[in-house]
Write a structure and sequence with these properties.
Helix content: 25-40%
Radius of gyration: 18 Å
Number of strands: 12
Strand order of the largest sheet: 10-7-9-8-2-3-1-4-11-12
Number of helices: 5
Structural class: alpha+beta
Amino acid sequence: MLRVLHTLHDLAEEAPLLTQLEQVRALAGCDSVELYKGLATDETFHVLTSTWEDEASFDAFWAQVLAGDFPEYFRLVEGNAEQTGVTEFYRCERFALKNGAWQPEGVAEKGRTIMWPARGQVRIVIQNAVQASDAMYVKIRQEIIDTRRELGCLSYTWCENVELPGHLLLEEIWADQVLYDQHWALRQHSAEFLGDNLRTPATPQRGPLAREFYRRQAFEHHYNRWQPAQLDGFSGTIVWPAS
C-alpha cells in the first residue's frame, strides 16, 4: 500500500477539486482519497491524502493527471502548491499503541518500539472518525495551540474532512525522533491533567482508520517523475542502511 500526502496552503475553492476526487475514487487501485481542512482558527491549511494498492496504481493515475484528466488536482499539486505545498510518499505502514509504545500492526514480537535513524524529521498521519461536538472542536483548537509550543514541533494540525463532519486527520512533523519521544512522554504524563479529549470514536462513512509513523520524505516533480527532495539518503543502485 502506498500513502500519498499533499499539504496545501492556497486552496481557494474546494468544490471543483472534490468533483474530481470522486472520479479518482473510482479508479483501479485507489484505496482512498480525501480532502481535509485545518481546524485552527483562521487557517487555510488543507491536506489532500490518498492510499493506493501499490506504486504502479499511483503511476497509472499520475499518467492520467499528466494527460489532463484531473486538471484541478494537477493545478494544486504541481501548480499553485509549488511554492507553498509539499508532497510526500510513503510505503504505508499502520501502527497501534501497545504497552505505551507505538508498534507496527504487522509486528508480533513483544516490547518493540519505533526504531529508525534518530536523524531527520518524523512525519505522523492519523485518520479517525469521531462524534463531532462544539466542545470537541474547542478542545482540539486548544490542543493545536499548546502542542505547537512544544520543543521540536514543526507542524501540528487537526483537520476535518470537508465532506464528512467528524472525520478527522492529524498531521504532525517533529524535528527528530528524540523530540517526538519527549512529546509523547509529555502527553502520557499530562493525560490526567488535560482530561477527556471528547473525541468519542464513531463508525467512518468512508476512508481508512490509520495511525502511521514515517521518517519524513518530501518529494519534488521533475521531468514527469517524482523523486525525493533530499537525495543523500536514497539509492536505487546499491542497497545498504542509508543511515
